[in-house]
């Protein structure tokens, strides 16, 4: 698709680098907030444990 523009978080460059895609920084946008989300019926002990670890680390802003 020629001319397609999509905004991605900065870490995409590190983890999903592709030689056929040019990643250009957008410097005048606010940071992209993230949150853990899962379907209630998919909840499991590993998901609860991961959520607890992340909850314990707090937000990046704190």
Describe this structure in words.
This is LysR substrate-binding domain-containing protein. With 62 residues, this protein is mainly alpha-helical. It has one domain (11-57). It is built from two helices and no strands. The chain starts with 10 loop residues before the first helix and ends in a 5-residue tail after the last helix.
Summed up, what is this model?
This is LysR substrate-binding domain-containing protein. The chain has two helices and no strands.
Instruction: Report the helical percentage.
Output: 25-40%
Number of domains: 1
The coarse silhouette is elongated
Radius of gyration: 16 Å
Structural class: mainly alpha
Protein name: LysR substrate-binding domain-containing protein
What's the helix and strand layout?
Blueprint: H1 11-15, H2 45-57
Task: Provide tags for this entry.
62 residues; mainly alpha; LysR substrate-binding domain-containing protein
